[in-house]
From TrEMBL, chain B:
This is 2Fe-2S iron-sulfur cluster-binding protein. It comes from Streptomyces ossamyceticus. Residues 10-86 form the 2Fe-2S ferredoxin-type domain. Residues 130-149 are annotated as: Disordered. Pfam families: Fer2, Fer2_2.
Length: 706, 187
């Protein structure tokens, strides 16, 4: 599968600017809502203003009489869709099957689509539409002890259990028993979700912004009962996704309107609508119990996590995932639970499970280190497991200790005074903290086509998505090495469902999955190209499918790892927390493009800062909706919040893996919020177990000697 | 475009990247939508449409401006520069060049706004404008050193959800340094 070694300098591992970079800095790169279509009509979604109930009626007549209005689609007149199917990632979330019935399961549920000639006309008409509801009482109160919570399987089983937890806790020299919470968080990619749908020669064409056109095309074919070959979805440039850009109400509504009107229709979400329609990370309530011998060896580890979901679809935030991988104990119990409330369905968001789960676990480890009087890094290294704590499977390499050694050296950890609350810089209390990170290295079946062109260049067609990860460039480098040519002779085309099925950009699996398929096809193509032979005008194309190769890979615990370090300053008078510097060292397989990889890691770490200090979506219990569903009230880290952030990596090699790539999109956020919270403890002596660490929380918690 | 009463539409002449365009626009049309939907200048991005993210930043008479909070009919007579107009032919603007080389972006959607903002930030700083990060704000103190902290403060109206901030700040610093080096050579 790997190419034969040659004298040529490999492209993989060498910094390469983005192949589409010039288009991005000049504004030439066109995103989904920017492709012109003759005769385009504009759809505007109307969202429910009640959290639970039924639509009694809609006053459509005055709206239809407004200038430019072409149609008002709602449950009384919209095309029917099929929801009883299993898609690429499981059963569909019924919240995407819009306008099928009169029930309202959450505030912000789409109740109508107004289509007009211009977006201004559509917007005014949508805002004019009066909808009458029969309201019913709603419950959106997420509490750790909610009586309707039940265990549920997400990634992996609902619960894992071995050993006698209570006995091991009782026998432990030191016990940590603490509850942690993380709030509702929203992806907020900079590009709002947008899709344009049209029928062209009997085929449905959708220009969209998504994380996988195989996925979206498949879902649309199933929903609208179309032959898969009759649906084409394209998504060339994507302005961020982070888990939110799958099948959503806007694509379905656009297809319905294009079908009814028989002309192209674009539906774009507003930023405010994204808070209701784009998915989000569920809040979590977690409890961790750790029991250890005096030397720090774990006897007991329990991790319980609760998240919420909608009343219509079950989504599990698998927050116990890090405990199932990171540390073993004689008694090791984990369980994920969920409660159904009158809210929208949450979804995957950057490092689903691991991001909130690592906050709890890695904070608890810091608390255990404090109680034991052991260095937090030593404590982790003393608990390195031999096999997967929950699975019993061997590890395919586990380079956590290398990350900690290298990180400690670069950060200057050896000089750290472990006592909390003793360092001052003027009005600021200073502290440092650390945490471990891991994220699964997975891959999904993919196909690729590699063509040797008559002019000596190569074209790769693969249905990958570049949502900002640099995938397009990484795949160019991978293909160049696999073909043993310079990268400028390779053109990689992505984001078109007509290229054949491929894995989505999600779960840090994209670049690994796609590279595998490209390697397979390129290797076979090289065998077919005879030295000195000629290539016919139509080129020579080889196709690959990784399904069999993936199935043959031995079952092991495959993960990337990292060590996170943070230094913070806390003002005890205002409660303000400032991160002064962050450093992460990662073991994440083969790094294809150091230039873009650095951005993936530091971007994830910056998400960690944002998660630790800023992000929190708050719902009004009276209405069931959000306070301030916008980027002013929902603050994501801005330039001024982000200090010097450094990312480094260590060599990391999995001998079984022909590709050697592990995926780097998620691991950067894992543990980052815990490192910040642990640093806040070191600065102030106060534990913050509830995110975000807002000024009011710092003030109410007090500070030593303040 | 359907015909409409003149009370809701007006003719307006917009000067964009040095070219004049006369359009009939709905009075509700923002400058952002006029650029994107009428002039096919889609480099200017719509991130929030309510002045909170900075993705739609353009230069109006040389100063940065969020085009989603400006109506097209109010932009007549102003010199509007978008990301499509900052390069000189095939030669990228030094800020564009620095973003490209230092990877000051990921998904690219906030990038045109970051670039327009950065171009203005460098000019504002050179003109001696202080920021909240400036220690000595007396006019006679002159421009403060353009430290990373100064750049971060001045660029904070432009959100980047990918978190490309580290490289963006490096790119702005490099472009600013190139500008002052060029000025010194010229002087």
């Amino acid at each position: 599968m790997t190419t034969a070694p040659t004298a040529r300098q490999g492209a993989v591992g060498t910094a390469h600017t983005r192949v589409e970079g010039r288009d991005k800095v000049t504004g030439a790169a066109r995103y989904a809502a920017e492709i012109p279509f003759p005769g385009l009509a504009h759809g505007w979604l109307v969202l429910s203003t009640v959290a639970r109930g039924r639509i009694r009626s809609l006053d459509t007549a005055p709206v239809l009489a407004m200038p430019g209005v072409l149609a008002v689609l709602h449950h009384g007149n919209a095309p029917r869709v099929e929801t009883d199917y299993t898609g690429l990632l499981g059963k569909p979330d019924p919240t995407t099957a819009v306008f099928q019935h009169d029930r309202v399961p959450h505030l912000g549920w789409p109740v109508a689509l107004v289509v007009a000639e211009t977006s201004e006309q559509a917007r005014e008409a949508a805002e004019t539409l009066v909808v009458h509801y029969d309201r019913e009482p709603h419950d959106i109160a997420f509490t750790a002890d909610h009586p309707r919570a039940y265990p549920a399987a997400g990634y992996g089983p609902a619960a894992t259990e071995k050993g006698d937890l209570e006995a091991e806790l009782a026998a432990s020299a030191v016990v940590v028993d603490a509850e942690y919470t993380t709030p509702e968080e929203h992806h907020n990619p900079m590009e709002p979700h947008a899709a344009t749908a049209r029928w062209e020669d009997g085929r449905l064409e959708v220009v969209d912004s998504n994380q996988g056109t195989t996925w979206v095309a498949g879902e649309l074919a199933s929903l609208f009962s179309l032959d898969p070959s009759a649906v084409r979805v394209r998504s060339e440039h994507v302005g961020g996704g982070f888990g939110s850009k799958g099948v959503r109400a806007h694509q379905v509504a656009a297809v319905m309107a294009a079908t009814v009107l028989q002309r192209p229709v674009r539906v774009a979400m507003t930023r405010r609508q994204m808070f209701s329609l784009a998915g989000y990370r569920s809040p979590t309530a977690q409890r961790i119990r750790l029991g250890a011998d005096a030397d720090g060896r774990l006897r007991a580890l329990e991790h319980r996590s609760l998240n919420l979901t909608s009343t219509v679809h079950e989504f599990i935030e698998s927050s116990t995932a890090p405990s199932r991988v990171m540390y073993d104990a004689d008694a090791h119990h984990t369980v994920n639970r969920v409660v159904r409330l009158d809210v929208g369905t949450p979804t995957w968001m950057r490092a689903p499970g691991e991001a909130p789960g690592s906050f709890a676990l890695e904070s608890a480890f810091d608390e255990l280190a404090e109680k034991l009087g052991v260095d937090p890094i030593d404590l982790r290294l003393r608990n390195e497991p031999e096999r997967g704590p929950a699975s019993g499977l061997p590890f395919a390499g586990r380079n956590l200790s290398a990350c900690f050694r290298e990180g400690a050296r670069r950060f200057g950890w050896a000089d750290r005074d472990p006592r909390p609350g003793v360092r001052r810089d003027g009005r600021w209390l200073l502290g440092t903290g650390t945490a471990a990170a891991s994220f699964a290295a997975g891959a999904g079946p993919s196909t690729a086509a590699v063509t040797a062109e008559a002019d000596g260049t190569f074209t790769v067609r693969i249905n990958a998505a570049d949502i900002g990860t640099g995938a397009r460039t990484a795949l160019t480098l991978v293909a160049a090495d696999a073909l043993d040519v310079a990268p400028d002779r390779v053109r990689v085309r992505i984001g078109d469902s007509d290229f054949g099925p491929a894995m989505i950009a999600g779960g840090s699996t994209g670049t690994r999955s796609w590279s595998w398929a490209i390697n397979l096809a390129a290797a076979e193509l090289r065998e077919r190209l005879t030295p000195g032979g000629t290539v016919p005008p139509e080129g020579i194309t080889v196709r690959s499918d990784t399904t069999a190769a993936l199935g043959a890979l031995a079952q092991k615990e495959r993960h990337s790892y990292g060590a996170q370090f943070a230094e913070v300053a806390v003002d005890p008078a205002t409660g303000e927390v400032r991160v002064r510097r962050m450093l992460g060292v990662f073991a994440a397989g083969r790094i294809v493009n150091p230039l873009t990889a650095r951005g993936q890691f530091t971007g994830g770490m910056i998400w960690g800062i944002s998660m630790a200090l800023h992000e929190e979506a708050v719902r009004d219990r009276a209405t069931g909706g959000h306070y301030g569903a916008d980027l002013a009230a929902y603050h994501v880290a801005a330039h001024a919040d982000v200090p010097a952030v450094e990312a480094h990596w260590v060599d990391d090699h999995d001998p079984d893996d022909p590709v050697g790539i592990k995926g780097i999109g998620e691991v950067g956020i894992v543990g980052a919020a815990a490192a910040v919270a642990n640093a806040v403890w070191h600065a102030t002596g106060v534990r913050h177990r509830h995110l975000p660490i807002r000024p009011d929380r710092v003030l109410l918690a007090g500070a030593p000697d303040a | 475009m359907s015909s409409a009463p003149s009370s809701t539409y007006s003719a307006v002449t917009l000067t964009v990247n040095g070219e004049k365009h006369t359009l009939t626009v709905d009075h509700r049309t923002t400058l952002l939508d006029a650029l994107r939907e009428r002039l096919d200048l889609t480099g200017t991005k719509k991130g929030c449409d309510q002045g909170q993210c900075g993705a739609c930043t353009v230069l109006v008479d040389g100063r940065r401006n969020v085009s989603c909070l400006q109506l097209a009919v109010a932009a007549e007579g102003r010199e509007i520069t978008t990301v499509e107009g900052v390069a000189e032919g095939d030669r990228l603007h030094p800020v564009q060049e620095a973003f490209l080389e230092l990877d000051g972006y990921q998904c690219g959607y906030c990038t045109p706004g970051q670039i327009c903002s950065a171009i203005a930030v460098i000019e504002e700083h050179a003109a001696g404008w202080p920021s909240a990060a400036t220690d000595d704000v007396r006019p006679e103190a002159g421009p403060p050193p353009l430290t990373p902290e100064e750049i971060r403060e001045r660029m904070s109206g432009n959100l980047c959800r990918c978190g490309a901030y580290v490289a963006i700040v490096e790119a702005v610093a490099r472009a600013a340094a190139d500008r002052s080096a060029a000025k010194e050579v010229a002087a």
